Amino acid sequence: MSELRNPQPEVFARDDSGYKHDDVVLLDNKQWSYVQRRYELTPRERQVAELICQGLRNGSIARRLRIRPGTVKTHTRNIYRKARVKSKIAMLLAFVSDARAFPADHEGTHSIALAD
Q1: Secondary structure of the chain in the HEC alphabet?
Q2: Is 66 left (phi over 0), alpha (psi -120 to 50) or beta?
C-alpha cells in the first residue's frame, strides 16, 4: 500500500515580501548613487529605499537592518519628503524615472523600459 502525500503549500520565509519572484534589479549601484545624491538621501535612507524597491515590507526591512519598525517608518517619511511623493510605488517610479535620465553609457547598465 503506497502512502499518499498531500503536497505542501509553498511557504514563504518570514523575511519575504510575500511574493515569490526572481531577484530583479531595477537600479544598479551607480544609479542608486545618483538617486542618493539627487535626493540628498542619507546612507541609511538609501538602504531603506533600496529594500522598499525590492518589495520588502517595513517589518522585514527592520529585521534585516536590525532597527525598529518605527525607525523604518521615520526613514520612509523622510524619503517621501525628499522625493516629494506620498507612496512607495510613487517613490519607486520617481527613482527609476530619474535613473533613466542618468547617463547609461557606463558598462554593465541595462535600462528597463517603463510604459509611459
Answers
A1: CCCCCCCCCCCCCCCCCCCCCCCCCCCCHHHHHHHHHHHCCCHHHHHHHHHHHCCCCHHHHHHHHCCCHHHHHHHHHHHHHHHCCCCHHHHHHHHHHHHHHCCCCCCCCCCCCCCC
A2: left
Spatial separation of the C-alpha atoms in residues 62 and 44, rounded to whole Å: 12
Q: All domains of the chain, ordered by start, with CATH? A: 29-101 (1.10.10.10)
Q: State the pTM of this model.
A: 0.70
**pLDDT tens string 64-116:** 999 999 999 999 999 999 999 999 999 999 999 998 887 654 444 444 444 44
